[in-house]
């Protein structure tokens, strides 16, 4: 492609270091996964326990929001650098989507 | 660095998906596509919430009589696990371990197929009860929202399977690394949408 840089080969120490960093990052991902499973379990058991609707709906939405943030920032790497444009695109889409959501609901519910 | 350069684990770049111009463009373009998908699913969620439980008078179907949580719970666990397995696949891609990545992507595909089979079983069950696509505003909104997600799962499966077959004997290159990376982003996005579906459609449906 347009890049004329030569292929850079890591030294043995450098290579072992990056592998260790990646392994630790992967351990972090597994922890994220465990948290997501835990949040899902709370959501399902809260519904199965049959609390009042007004108590449970905000909790369910909060749990979903946390889980989506974990998925986006860790599994989809948005927390890493070089993701400014990715975040800009996604939040633009989310804001537009939220406007659609408000419009639909106000038209249908208040008529 | 061109597409045909052969790499070793030592010379493999830290972010192989963003080394070439094509890879950078794919990465940006794919996030723009995901923004568009967010708008698509927002409009479907808005439609569903607006039309939830609405239909002909005396309709016997409602979110509370229809949905069964154990099935949804199993589907959620399967899809969530498949998200982790695709993280493992990308971990092996960064380590330049081609076999490892193929194995984890294959596990992801198997979990995706299991999810899709359960969804087909669920839809089939509803249709047998008389809750067909055209039965009510509620049923149309429900099947369109959850069905569009199911279609995304099917497309994602087709995409990953084709990638695996096409590149089966090629090993890693800067040409195919961005392809694997975007496919895994897409798979995570499918899980993001499912989090909203199991919360808004199923759990909030059962609550009231």
Task: Give the topology.
The complex is a heterodimer of chains A (111) and B (208).
Chain A: H1 12-49, H2 53-75, H3 84-109
Helix pairs in contact in A: 1-2
Chain B: H1 21-51, H2 63-66, H3 69-94, H4 98-129, H5 137-166, H6 177-207
> Tell me, what's the shape of chain A?
flat
Instruction: Tell me the CATH superfamily of chain B.
Output: Cytochrome c oxidase, subunit III, four-helix bundle
| Number of helical elements of chain A | 3
| Percent of residues in beta strands of chain B | under 5%
Main sheet overview of chain B: none
Subcellular location (chain B): Cell membrane
Pfam family, one (chain B): COX3
GO biological process, one term (chain B): aerobic electron transport chain
InterPro entries (chain B): Cyt_c/ubiquinol_Oxase_su3 (IPR024791), Cyt_c_oxidase-like_su3 (IPR000298), Cyt_c_oxidase_su3-like_sf (IPR035973), Cyt_c_oxidase_su3_a-hlx (IPR013833), Ubiquinol_oxase_su3_dom (IPR033946)
Description of the structure:
The complex is a heterodimer of chains A (111) and B (208). Chain A contains three helices and no strands. Chain A is mainly alpha-helical. Chain A has two domains: 80 residues; 31 residues. Chain A is flat. The mean pLDDT of chain A is 91. Chain B is built from six helices and no strands. Chain B has one domain: Cytochrome c oxidase, subunit III, four-helix bundle (Four Helix Bundle (Hemerythrin (Met), subunit A)). The N and C termini of chain B lie far apart (58 Å). Chain B has 208 residues and is mostly helical. Chains A and B meet through helix 1, helix 2 and helix 3 of A and helix 1, helix 3 and helix 6 of B. Chain B: It is found in: Cell membrane. Chain B: Keywords: Cell membrane, Membrane, Transmembrane, Transmembrane helix. Chain B: It is a multi-pass membrane protein.
């Amino acid at each position: 492609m347009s890049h004329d840089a030569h292929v850079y080969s890591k030294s043995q120490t450098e290579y072992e270091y990056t592998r260790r960093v990646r392994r630790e990052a992967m351990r972090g991902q597994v922890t994220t996964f465990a948290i997501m499973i835990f949040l899902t379990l709370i959501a399902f058991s809260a519904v199965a326990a049959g609390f009042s609707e007004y108590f449970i709906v905000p909790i369910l939405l909060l749990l979903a929001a946390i889980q989506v943030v974990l998925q986006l920032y860790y599994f989809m790497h948005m927390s890493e650098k070089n993701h400014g444009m990715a975040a800009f695109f996604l939040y633009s889409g989310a804001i537009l989507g939220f406007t659609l959501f408000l419009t639909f609901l106000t038209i249908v519910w208040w008529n | 660095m061109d597409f045909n350069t052969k790499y070793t684990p030592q010379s493999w770049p830290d972010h192989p998906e963003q080394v070439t111009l094509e890879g950078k463009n794919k990465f940006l373009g794919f996030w723009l596509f995901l923004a568009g998908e967010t708008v698509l699913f927002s409009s479907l969620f808005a439609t569903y919430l607006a039309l939830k439980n609405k239909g002909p008078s005396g309709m016997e179907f409602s979110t509370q009589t229809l949905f069964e949580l154990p099935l949804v719970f199993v589907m959620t666990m399967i899809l969530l696990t498949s998200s982790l397995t695709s993280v493992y696949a990308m971990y092996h891609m960064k380590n330049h371990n081609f076999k490892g990545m193929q194995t984890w992507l294959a596990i992801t595909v198997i979990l995706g197929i299991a999810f899709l089979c359960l969804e087909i079983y669920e839809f089939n069950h509803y249709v047998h009860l008389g809750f067909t696509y055209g039965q009510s505003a509620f049923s149309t909104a429900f099947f369109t929202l959850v069905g569009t997600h199911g279609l995304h799962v099917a497309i994602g499966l087709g995409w990953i399977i084709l990638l695996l077959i096409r590149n089966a004997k090629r090993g890693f290159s800067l040409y195919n690394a961005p392809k694997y990376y975007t496919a895994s982003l897409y798979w995570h996005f499918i899980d993001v949408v499912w989090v909203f579906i199991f919360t808004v459609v199923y759990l909030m449906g059962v609550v009231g």
